[in-house]
Design brief:
This protein is α+β, with helices and mostly antiparallel strands and 105 residues long. The protein has 2 helices and 6 strands.
Length: 105
């Protein structure tokens, strides 16, 4: 379990966790994702096309409202936070999911 996953689950190295299947996670219709300010200093251009599109392209990644994740690209790493998901608190980012990236945290 990498550092980002441990942070999202609020666990530390050495903690015991159990993993359970959650079969009812739906494909997302819309997600609102923002970069963290301190990770985009000096980064120019369109963050969606440079970071998020390649990260989510054909990968069907699950996300949860409030999750943080790190995307590497262009010799830099940018940390993002999931602000809102539709439908529900959890969803899977699919090719037809609309992503909104405006502003920063």
């Amino acid at each position: 379990m990498n550092k980002v996953v441990r942070t999202n689950l609020r666990v530390r190295l050495g903690d015991v966790v159990s993993v359970h299947q959650y079969p009812d996670v739906k494909y997302g219709k819309r997600v609102h994702i923002l970069p963290l300010d301190d990770t985009i200093e000096g980064v120019t251009g369109d963050l969606f096309h440079a970071y998020l599109k390649p990260y989510f392209l054909e990968s069907y990644r699950p996300v949860r409202k409030g999750d943080h994740f790190l995307v590497r690209g262009g010799m830099r790493s940018v940390e993002f936070k999931v602000i809102e998901t539709d439908p529900g608190e959890y969803c899977v980012i699919a090719p037809d999911t609309k992503s909104f990236v405006r502003g920063s945290l």
